[in-house]
Structure formats: C-alpha cells, structure tokens
Amino acid sequence: MAAAAAGPGPGSGTGDSPEGPEAEAPERRRKAHGMLKIYYGLSEGESAGRPAGSDPLDPTDLNGAHFDPEVYLDKLRRECPLAQLMDSETDMVRQIRALDSDMQTLVYENYNKFISATDTIRKMKNDFRKMEDEMDRLATNMAVITDFSARISATLQDRHERITKLAGVHALLRKLQFLFELPSCLTKCVELGAYGQAVRYQGRARAVLQQYQHLPSFRAIQDDCQVITARLAQQLRQRFREGGSGAPEQAECVELLLALGEPAEELCDEFLANARGRLEAELQSLEAELGPSPPAPDVLEFTDHGGSGFVGGLCQVASAYQELFAAQGAAGAEKLTAFAQELGGRYFALVERRLAQEQGSGDNSLLVRALDRFHRRLRAPGALLAAAGLAEAATEIVERVARERLGHHLQGLRAAFLGCLTDVRQALAAPRLAGKEGPGLAELLANVASSILSHIKASLAAVHLFTAKEVSFSNKPYFRGEFCSQGVREGLIVGFIRSMCQTAQSFCDSPGEKGGATPPALLLLLSRLCLDYETATISYILTLTDEQFLVQDQSPVTPVSTLCAEARETARRLLTHYVKVQGLVISQMLRKSVETRDWLSTLEPRNVRAVMKRVVEDTTAIDVQVGLLYEEGVRKAQSSDSSKRTFSVYSSSRQQGRYAPSYTPSAPMDTNLLSNIQKLFSERIDVFSPVEFNKVSVLTGIIKISLKTLLECVRLRTFGRFGLQQVQVDCHFLQLYLWRFVADEELVHLLLDEVVASAALRCPDPVPMEPSVVEVICERG
User: Fold this and answer.
1) Of 14, 176, 337, 356, whose CB is crowded by the most CB atoms within 10 A?
2) What residue spans carry the region label Disordered (predicted)?
C-alpha cells in the first residue's frame, strides 16, 4: 500500500500545478483507497499499521495519503547515518517485495472472479442489444395499434351512443316485462311451493310498485300482487301453525312472513308457542322413561336423550328467535328468557328425579359421566340465554348430586363399620356355640382395620371422579374448594371417624341398655381399634385425602390432633367400660357366693370354695385376652415370697391380737376403734381409677372392683367361727394367684386383709384357723 501511495506522489507534490482536474486526482485516489479498505474489512488504523498518534498530513509518513518521496529522502539524509540509511534501504526493499508478493497473491486469488465478471459483462452487452431491438419493435407495434384504435373509435362514435341508448331501453323493457309478469310468476311460485322465490320477487318489485302506484297499469299490478301475497302469507301461516316440520323450517316460515311485512310481535308469540309444543313433547318422552311400566334406561342414556332432544331443540329455538326477532329489543329477550326458564325448570326437575334413582347405586363412574354430559350440553343454551341462568341451575344440580353422593358414601362407610362389628360378634359367638377354637382377637382386629381402610379408600376413589380434569364441571369453584375441604375431608372422612367413635361409645351405655348385651371382647377390640386410629391411622387417612383432593379453600378444617384426641378418649372410655363389665361379671359371682351361703352354721372348711377357683380361672382368661391386644405394662418390684405373704399377714401379731380370745362381743367398740385407726394410716385405694392402655392396668382395675365387691358383701353378713375360717382360706387362695396380675401386689394384700378383718369384726367367735392349716388346704385345692 505504501508503494501504491508513493507512485503518484511526485506528480502531485511538485506544488507548481494549477488548481483543476490535477488537484482533484489525490482526492479520487483517497476515495478509491478508502473503498478498497472497506471492501477488505480494514479500518483506518489498520490500513498500513500507521501509529495511532501520527499526523495524516505528514509528507514523510510512508503510509499516509500525503507522502512526498523527496521530502522523505531529504529527511533521511539529514538525520540518519550511513549505516541506518543502508538498513532503511534493506527494510524498504523487503517491504516492496512483500507488497509485490501480496499483490500477486491477490490477483491470483481473484483471477477466476475477474474472468467470470468479464464473461458476465460480455453477456450483458449482448442481452442489452437484443432487448433494445425488441423494445424498438414493441414501440413500433404500439404506435400502429394506437393509430388503429383511434380510427376505430372515430368510426364507431355515433354507433356507440346509439347502442348505449338501446341498451338502456332494453333494460327498462326487461324491468317492465318483469313487473307485468310478476302476478303470474308469484302465482306459479305459490303453486310450486317455492315460497322463498316468491317473497324475493315481491321484495324486488315492492319499491317500484309503491313509487308508481298512481299510474293505473302499475296500480293494477300492485293489487294483483297484494292478493297473491295475502294468499302466500296465509299458506305460510298455515304451514307454520301445523308445526309438522322441524325448527329450521319453522324459522324459515317466520323469516318469509317477516319479509312480507307481517306483525313481528304476533309472529314472535306464535313462534314460541309452536316451539313450546315441540319441546313439551320431548319432556313428555323423558317423563315416560321415568314411568314404572317400561324399564327405565340407565342414567347416561337418559341424559343423552334429554341433551340431544330437549336441550338441542332449545338451542335451535333460542338461536332462531334471536336471529329473527333481534329488532324486538328487551321485550323480545324477556319473552325468550321466561320461555327458557319455564321449560328448563321442568327439564331440570325430570333430570333430578332420574338422578335420585341413582342414589342407591354404589358406582359413581356412570353417574359422573352422565352429569358431565348433562353439564356440557347446557353450555350452549347457557351462553345463548345468559339471563335465564340455565348453566348456573345445571351446576347447582351437579353440586347437589355431589353432596348427596358424599352422604351416600358416608352411610356406606357407617354400614360397613356396623357390618364389621356384626361379623366380629358372630366370630366371637360361633366358637362358643360350636365348641371350637375361633379366630383370635388380634386377627379379628386386623380384619376389621383392613376392611374399614379399604372401604375408605374405595369411597375416596369414587368421589375423586367428581374432580377429574376431563370432567367439565371439575373447574367450578365448588369442586375446587368446598367439595374437597368441607365435603370430602370434613363431611366424609372426619364425619365417618367421628361416627365410628360415637358408635363405639354407644357400647358404653349402662347395663340393661345397649351396653349390657355387648361382648366384653368386642369392647376390648374397639378400644384397641380406636387407639390404633389415634396413633397412626387418622393421620394416614387425612394425609391421603389431602394429597388426592388438593384443597383450594380457606375455610377452617378439623385438625388431626383434635380427631386423635377424640379417638383416644373413645378408646379410654371403651377400655374403662371393659374393666367395669368384666369386674361386674366376677363381682356377680362373688356376691352370689356370699349372699347364698349360711355363714353362721357352716361346717369347718376342708377345701377352697369352687367360686374362688372360678374367679382365678376367669381372671387368667381375661389376662390372656387382654394380652392379645395390649402390651404388658409396668409392675412394681415383686417380693420374693409374694405367694406366701397373705399367710404371714394373717398370722402377724397385729392379726393375732385382733383374733385373740380376748376379743369378745362385750367389747366391740375397742376392736372397731382399732380397725378405724388402722385405716387412717393405710393407703387409700381408688377402685375406679383411670385405666391405662396396658394389660397390667386393665387387670388391676378388674381385680380392684372384684375384691371391693367381696369386701362390701362381707360387711353385710354375720359369720360364725367356721365361716370366718372359710373366708380366711378363700382369701389366702386368692392371694396365691391374683398378686401376679396387678401392678402392685400390696393392693391385693390390703383388700384381702380388709375382707378378713371385716369378716372378723362380724363374727361373734372370731377364732382364726392356723396358718399352716390354711396353707395345706389351699395347696390341696
């Protein structure tokens, strides 16, 4: 580039050339130079590596546009030594060679482009020559055509004006011919049934006949047309009133009558009256399907019939009415709205009657499909007749059905729970009747829990169909919020859990009512079931419900902790009632054994009474029964001689003093005082203390009730010497076996001590049996 810039330098740098074309040559070269830099993508600073701070007007700048070789050489000779001049020459030669090499490379690289451009230019020259010849011929032809056209126009000018006049006369004659032939055309159209064509003919001629009715000929034509039009209108009205055709034909009749100028309000009333007849026929057909004689179709077929028949007809009527009587304004819209509300209400009543027949079915899939089609069908009339509120009424029906289905499933869950209880009763009673070993309580509990849980899951799956995405009404606010929270969660799940707890608590009624006939094992099983619900099942069921039904409602719901507390309270009440019932059974045996025996004249005891053995057997059976469902529980540390402690108590100095010969009926006050003082320092026993959820607590409660009953019965009797000794033997036998069932063996010791002491206080001759004899009798028994 430096060499290229240096070539023209001397010619422009002499300074003696005049202003003119020679002065503009450097400017043209700079422009060409700039265009080349743009083509090759070089910036001003990159064009030849010029320093950023150099002066573009410097004549000694090799890369500048104003480079002057003479000035540059003078500067080098003045400023540089010989060695530097030689180096500058060598460097310049190297740069010139590099530039020559670059230029040759540029020429070689663009040689094919240059050749192709040359060929293209040559072809363009040839093509332009051909185009010029063709344009010349075209111009010649256009001139000839223009000349011919001018001569033709001049020749036909007079004829064109006459033709235009004749064409106008011809058109007028055709119109007059149409008017004169109009009566016959109208008569022929009426005879052929082409009512639409006849109305169009009348419409085309009406304005002209009205305008020229003062002329006698036009007046006659108008009179004839009016007679024919009146007959046409009469036939259209007759066809319209017969109503044999469908809604489109009826609408066509009304449209033609309106075009003939018939009163719109009268036609409006007649149109709705005819539509009412057709729609009422559809309603009667639906009502006939609900009758008792023919077998009613399934609910899906019923809704399809109603949707295609009544709802489709109502849509056609509404659409045609709005199109035909749009000019009637608000009055016409009110008529249509009242019409739709009346017939729509009757249709909804029939649908609700049919849906009510499905309330006993357990399958929701067919019902939900029917409701979906029912709701979809009413979208169109709901949009056409927004003021009638048909879509809202349909949504309310769907919501009512959903609420009723929730109630149905709640009743189904309650019935399933009662059925499980009945099965448990039968399973508990069957082995006793057949003398066989029945299923254990743990197995029965597992069966009841799994059965109830499976019924709950089935009910959730059934009602979940109402919120499926493909169902048209699932996006309604009720099904997105209240149905999920208040309907399913609160009404169905929480309602069933509370109903289950209430049913279980109903078995805790006082004896003689419902609770008196309840098997104790059932009370124990229900108690454990409620406890399991409190610990895990309630939380699992509510979590499952919340996951399936994404609640978008902010209304308050029952917390899990509240339900768990209710279930735990129910379990506690059931277990407490179980303790009372079992304690009552054993107490009845003890009471009868005390009340039916003559304790004053009884013989010397030789063995333990059979009722005491039965008490121990029943207590052992209860221990096994409770152990099947509840854990062992915590006991206090037992003494090493628990089985002999009763004997030592009865043979202690305190008891010996109480039973000493010095005790006579003449000094009862001293003995009573001693007994009362002893009670002050003994621990008070709460017979009906709260029962904990373990086996030890349950058995402790039963034994406390039984021994307390024995104590109270003993207090009501008078004992002889041998009667006292028999009580002593019985109490020792009970001590041998009952201490292992209670949480604190001291409780058994104290109660049995009270029994023997109470019997001694009521004995005229309180002589106790030797402890060794008591022990021998009990071991033998």
Assistant:
1) 337
2) 1-31
**524 close to 441: Cβ distance less than 8 angstroms:** yes
User: CA of 268: how far to CAs of 241, 258, 368, in Å?
Assistant: 13, 10, 39
The residue with greater pLDDT, 265 or 376, is 376
Q: Give, rounded to a whole angstrom, the gap between the first and last alpha carbons of the chain.
A: 136
Query: Which residue did the predictor score with more confidence, 105 or 675?
Result: 105
Provide the token pair at 89: 């020459």
**Average pLDDT of 134-151?**
89
Nearest alpha-carbon partner for 261 in 332, 329, 207: 207
Between CA 768 and CA 722 the distance in angstroms is 9
Distance between CA 374 and CA 309 in Å, rounded?
A: 12
- pLDDT level of residue 656 (50, 70, 90 thresholds): very low
201 vs 655, residue with greater confidence: 201
Query: pTM score > 0.70 for this model?
Result: no
For the chain, the average pLDDT equals 78
Query: How many C-beta atoms lie closer than 10 Å to residue 681's C-beta?
Result: 6
634 in helix, strand or coil?
coil
Distance, CA of 343 to CA of 315 (rounded, Å): 12
Contact 261, 232 (CB under 8 A): no
- Residue 132, Cβ neighbours under 10 Å: how many? 10
Write out the DSSP string of 720-747: -HHHHHHHHHHHHHHHHHHGGGSS-HHH
Query: Between residues 498 and 50, which one has the greater pLDDT?
Result: 498
Q: φ, ψ for residue 773 (rounded to 5)?
A: -70, -40
Residue 655: name the closest of 733, 722, 749 by CA.
Answer: 749
Residues of the chain by 3-state class (helix, strand, coil), percent to 5: 75, 0, 25
**Rounded to whole angstroms, how far apart are CA atoms 630 and 694?**
5
Tell me how far apart the 2 most distant CA atoms of the chain are, in Å. Answer: 175
The Cα 696–Cα 692 span in angstroms is 9
Query: What residues contact residue 312 under an 8 Å CB cut-off, 6+ apart?
Result: 377
Categorize the per-residue pLDDT at 686 as very low, low, confident or very high, splitting at 50, 70 and 90: low
Q: Count helices and strands (H / E) in the chain.
A: 31, 0
DSSP at 484: I
Residues in the chain: 781
- Residue 18 pLDDT class (50, 70, 90 cuts): very low
Compute the CA torsion angle 547, 553, 558, 560 (nearest 10 deg).
30
pLDDT at site 5? 38
Per-residue pLDDT at 17 = 39
Q: How confident is the model at residue 639 (pLDDT cuts 50, 70, 90)?
A: low
DSSP per-residue letters across 496-539: HHHHHHHHHHHTTSPTTSGGGGS-HHHHHHHHHHHHHIIIIIHH
